[in-house]
Amino acid sequence: MDDLPLLNPQEFPHCFVCGPENAEGLGLRIHQDGTDALAHYTPRATHIGYPDRVHGGLIGMLVDEMLVYAGAPHGLWGMTAKVRYWLRMPIPIGEELTLRGRLVQRSDRGFRAVVTVHLPDDRLAAEGEGMCVIRHREP
Hints:
11% of the residues lie in helices and 36% in strands. By secondary structure, the chain is mainly β. The protein has one domain: Roll (Thiol Ester Dehydrase, Chain A), CATH 3.10.129.10. A hairpin with a 5-residue loop joins strand 5 and strand 6. The longest helix is centred in the middle third of the chain and has 15 residues, at 56-70. It is globular, with a radius of gyration of 14 Å.
């Protein structure tokens, strides 16, 4: 995946989910895969909810982040206005998750995107959708 263009913007180094300079953060690296945003993440033991399972709130946070990044391959940067997600099965700790964000609709004020979260065997573990408002970058 390292051969795909990195989407993480340099101007947000302290973001909890994607900021490379946030020592307490997740350090998610998001890449452009055609018109989609793509990332891999392996939940750590400290991300536990039920025994041996990833906390559902962490999955919600990853879905939220991928919604925002779904606009990036299209030159759009947004802030989440509405998000919802579904956990389709228990997600084990320590398994690499594949996260994909896809823009499905856009307007002058925002965009709608969908996100999938797959386990290594390609089973759908979670999915989400949401709306982002356009964030205009300062000159």
